[in-house]
Amino acid sequence: MQNALEKWERKMSNYNWCHNPDCHTIETQSRVRGSGDNKVLRTRKIKSYGTDSIWTYFCNNNCLHQFLNKFAREIANIRPVNKPSETPIKVEKTKEESYRYRYSNGESRRVPYISTRTTISRVDNDWPFLYSPRYENN
Prior knowledge:
This protein is α+β, with helices and mostly antiparallel strands.
């Protein structure tokens, strides 16, 4: 009996219920449960594949966005942002010869021009562990 219970618990731990509190009110075939006159709309069960993904907690985009719209303020208050974060960068601009095509009279001609390429690279080698004042404990 203990083995059967352990197997059931392991199997059920691979599932979550959709975290949208209104999931059970959305009228779709996948939510209908019960038999005869005892039918109900039930929150969807989600298979968890062991990944740390938002889709471990929500059955679809609709439920995710309903949840975010309903609880956005509470979510933002978990970790408020009072200051902007900054990442040190180095901006390099290089000029290089490139080509564009000019079409006229049904013919195309390759025309050279000088283009400017902008490359942004991070300066700090410790990225992503950069200092961020927004999470500073005061």
